Amino acid sequence: MQTRTVKLTERLNTFIEGAVASGRYLDDGDVVREALRLLALREWEDGTAPASAPVPAGATASRKAA
């Protein structure tokens, strides 16, 4: 798995810390991966993902035309 460094606002950092502290996620990376998975799914479903994008986990086979 690759490592990537990102800069977060204090609000996003607090959100991530809260999600981990709640026990729903094991670590910061789990929160970020879930957020990116949901973003990919939303873009797939609303048709804004590139045509070459793979079908994200949880997506149905149908999607809106871009």
TrEMBL record:
Name residues in a coiled coil: none
Under the heading InterPro entries, the entry gives: ParD (IPR022789), ParD_sf (IPR038296), Ribbon_hlx_hlx (IPR010985)
**Does this UniProt record's set of keywords contain Electron transport?**
no
Superkingdom per UniProt? Bacteria
Region ranges (Disordered): 47-66
By its UniProt entry, which Pfam families does this protein fall under? ParD_antitoxin
Keywords of this protein's UniProt record, alphabetized?
A: Toxin-antitoxin system
Q: What is the protein name stated in its UniProt record?
A: Type II toxin-antitoxin system ParD family antitoxin
Specify the taxonomic lineage.
Bacteria, Pseudomonadati, Pseudomonadota, Alphaproteobacteria, Acetobacterales
